[in-house]
Amino acid sequence: AKWVYTFGDGKAEGQSSMRNLLGGKGANLAEMSNLGLPVPPGFTITTEVCTYFYDHGRQYPPDLKDQVDAALDAVGRLTGRRFGDSETPLLVSVRSGARASMPGMMDTVLNLGLNDTTVEALARGSGDPRFAYDSYRRFITMYSNVVLGVEHHTFEEALEHYKEAKGLDLDTDLSAQDWKHLIGEYKGIVKRALGQDFPQDPQAQLWGAIGAVFGSWMNPRANKYRELHNIPANWGTAVNVQAMVFGNMGDTSATGVAFTRNPSTGEKALYGEFLINAQGEDVVAGIRTPQDITEAARIESGSDKPSMEKAMPEAYAELVRIYGLLENHYRDMQDMEFTVENGKLWMLQTRNGKRTAKAALRIAVELAGEGLISQEEAIGRVEPASLDQLLHPTIDPKAERRVIATGLPASPGAACGEIVFNSEEAEAAKKAERKVILVRVETSPEDIHGMHAAEGILTTRGGMTSHAAVVARGMGKPCVSGVGAIRVDYNARTLSVGGVTLKAGDLITIDGSNGQVIQGEMPMLEPELSGDFATLMDWADQVRTMKVRANAETPADARAARSFGAEGIGLSRTEHMFFDEGRITAVREMILADDAEGRRGALAKLLPYQRADFVELFTIMSGLPVTIRLLDPPLHEFLPKEEEVGAFAAETGLSADKLRRRMTELDETNPMLGFRGCRLAILFPEIAEMQARAIFEAAVEAAKRTGAPVIPEVMVPLVFTKAEFDLVKARIDAMAKAVAQESGSKVEYQVGTMIELPRAALRAGDIAETAEFFSFGTNDLTQTTLGISRDDAGTFLGSYTKNGILTSDPFVSIDQEGVGELVKLGAERGRAVRPGLKLGICGEHGGDPASIAFCQEVGLDYVSCSPYRVPIARLAAAQAAL
Ligand code: PEP
Ligand code: MG
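Structure tokens predicted for Pyruvate, phosphate dikinase (882 residues):
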């Protein structure tokens, strides 16, 4: 079998479409070679080797070694060098590269092939011993850390001590002799830590590094990342081995990263950072402050260090040429890594760049504007769920800010919370429902869980491409990075800056859009949704076929929903209207009454509230459909708590004993399967009658007020048989007639039902004989189909998804095979009886992109979701329609 694919010198055995086999990095290195771009020659060991490795007890395919040797020879021929040669040694980098970029895995080993002999050859060949020893010490620390598992900081400490003793400040102040001395110390550290010498044999080094890449595929951090991002373990990673080019060969050499468009804002301009006389890890590690690429960016940042445009005009011009070429070729924003060796630019990587939602929108809209992609492609370029980032609040600009420091605006949005200094505390706080800001000197892949748990992330080191910045942008969390002025003391659990000292637990706010760190909690503002957002939403609305409604009952929610583009209300949970002060007492009186008369008395108090609520809803949603569901309370949620009984008895004049007796009667072992839904309307028809009256009277009034007809959709919850529905519908119809007579106005309306029990889905044909619409209540349908309580699933569902028993939480993303099958069946059976039956979904799944795609397949007319998910649903519905 072919396990190794070579590239370099304007050609390659692979190409970008072979991502599954070569990984993202390998496929794009091949593609860039084919495009004739300057790529150091190398080869990719395929992901199939990784799969083989794990299928065969961590053994390699028997013919792999020969293929690797042949590929190394080929690279040697192109570079005029030989791997392990004592005169003209070939040095290589070894890097992992999965299909999807994956933090948490072994990343990079540079300068591999150096040992006590080849380092001398490198010194002779380059005429620069300092460069050679600098490369060797980098290799020892990197290899020892990522391959041999020796802690990085032990080397750092040795270096710091040495610098201190010698009175040296910067790494660049160290001479060849200094590095040579430190190399001796480093080798001693390795020997003490491992009980054996640092490997001198280049072949042993190479296979050690290859093994480390494959081994890291299954390390806990990588597993965690895959779990969070639904990446299957059997994808495997590739390994890329590539001839070294050196960015640390003095002042005509450099290394950097650049985006073809700004990954935070989407602005079309070469954007990035570079460092003169450095190797790749220096940029990411944030040890030295990187320099700007363009002169415009330098002026904006106010940096006193020259831009690449000024310092290396030829290499810069080449980068600009390549940037245009790559964008046109990939038709998307690229994230590139490059090295300049003695003035010559080399490309080490390109990939579609990660970006914020804001940038994704702008880039998609502008690429379509430039004619590089179509409007439909633009719709597909934005992850619907990521829009959430734009819907986040920002700090009220009128509020006074106590800015204590400013760092880099690494990921937009504002967040506030208590200070925590490590990821464990962040996670614990999250469990206790406390909001925190994770404050770190820098983050590493070990902090992923803490970053997830935090509202926002603050680091004192690292640039826009540091780990914290990249990961936070991916997560859509606000992040301020590189706040050098803040000093963090992990031991004392404090941060201090300019005379201010804050402790763990103190409140701070970060503004990821301008890099500010603010003491205390700030007032937030709702986001504004215009510009590119509106444009893309407009394009999405043109192609989607499903309508998007909102689940809303309060005026505030209804208004928010409408401003987000909701095309009506798909579910108004009337029981949520009863929790307000002044109402809950009447509701309790109604529930606790022993007879219909008692209930009528309480209901009479509720009628004006309900009517006023509905008038407001109909007015806000004027011209759009509004579905109102009859009361569906799990009764226990409304009953007074034991300690409230006394006060409640006093307020209502009922006897406390009698109250307790009635509460015991109503007590249910399993309220979710108890006296709720239409069961209530059937036993206590006066409740449904009051609500129907409120709905119809409100419709008449709102129509008068707005001048637009109101056609309410009255929805009956939790039916499992047509007979239940018909009983309730008869009451509603009678009330409509009564209100029409009393008001002298025409009352138009529809009566439909929720399909949220398996039996209702199965008997949808019967039910559709009289029901005028269906709305799938997939929350209860999931609960009752899987037999998993909505309220108690948390205790075990997590380990179900972790262990792969379920691919995702069925209450978040619809279980297509089971619950989905029932939805499909219900839709088909309903429409077979009543062609054109209006179908919607109003469970939480109505706002989940994967579930929305499923709804499109089934042929639903609309999805209904919470107001903040409306834009997400509009975009997801458009993508589903394409
Ligand atoms: C449902 O069950 O899916 C539904 C929307 O109703 P509720 O969540 O109010 O039970
Ligand atoms: Mg329900």
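The chain has four domains: 4-243, 254-355, 393-525, 544-633+676-881.
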